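During the first year of the project, the team set up a workflow for recording each protein of interest as an amino acid sequence followed immediately by a discrete structure-token representation. This format lets reviewers and collaborators read both layers of information side by side without switching files. As required by the reporting guidelines, we include two representative entries from the current panel. The first entry is reproduced here exactly as it appears in our internal archive.
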Amino acid sequence: MSHAWTFVCASDALLPGEMKSVFDEVTGTPIVVFNLDGDLYALEDQCTHEEFELSAGEFNTSEGSIECVLHGARFDVRDGQALCAPAYSPAPKFPVKREHDAVWTRDDRD
């Protein structure tokens, strides 16, 4: 588990409807951070169906979901739940915070 927070971007560089990808250097985990109507959410940047980055997909702000471009699996950005086949397992969700005019996240898994 990483206790070190990873810098994502300046707070004003992640506007509602946008997403940013980062890499947790401590755990080697790719993370994607979403701004959904001003609230921030972070998921592992990997589809649970087939190892492919979610950030390449479309962020649907009206549904609050991200769609994997590979096979169309969709995940709720708020909690990582798989919304349709071919994905059945949720995408891991990570903490995200605003601090010192910046956005931060970390892989908090044991």
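The second entry, processed by the same pipeline in the following quarter, appears below.
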Amino acid sequence: MSQLDNSIQELLQIEGATGAALVDISSGMALASSGNPGFDLTVAAAGNSNVVRAKLKTMNDLGLDQKIEDIMITLGNQYHLINVLNTTETSGLFVYIVLDRNTANLALARHKLNAISSRISL
């Protein structure tokens, strides 16, 4: 099993996690993904790359010279967390995780997501 697949499996061990993917921002292609969040994860990965690109463009337009850490989307029964990777090796990628809102602890999930994301390498 590849290091990326191991990272995805580790993400899925977060309480409440139903799906996870490592996504290329520019193409929207999932480099690795797994889980069953109740929708097509590859379509969600591509769509969320549009969200990240739009936010990066807006930040550039505003002259904000900072890095995105996280983007959170809350739905009635799910949390969608996007963690933008900012190391030299992983620049241009983000981690996308879907959490069941009824069973996940959002603070703990974000903490674990950040820890796992910091160890991802290509």
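For the second entry, the following points were noted during internal review. The domain at 3-118 is CATH 3.30.450.30 (Beta-Lactamase). The chain has one domain: 3-118. Both points are flagged for discussion at the upcoming steering committee meeting.
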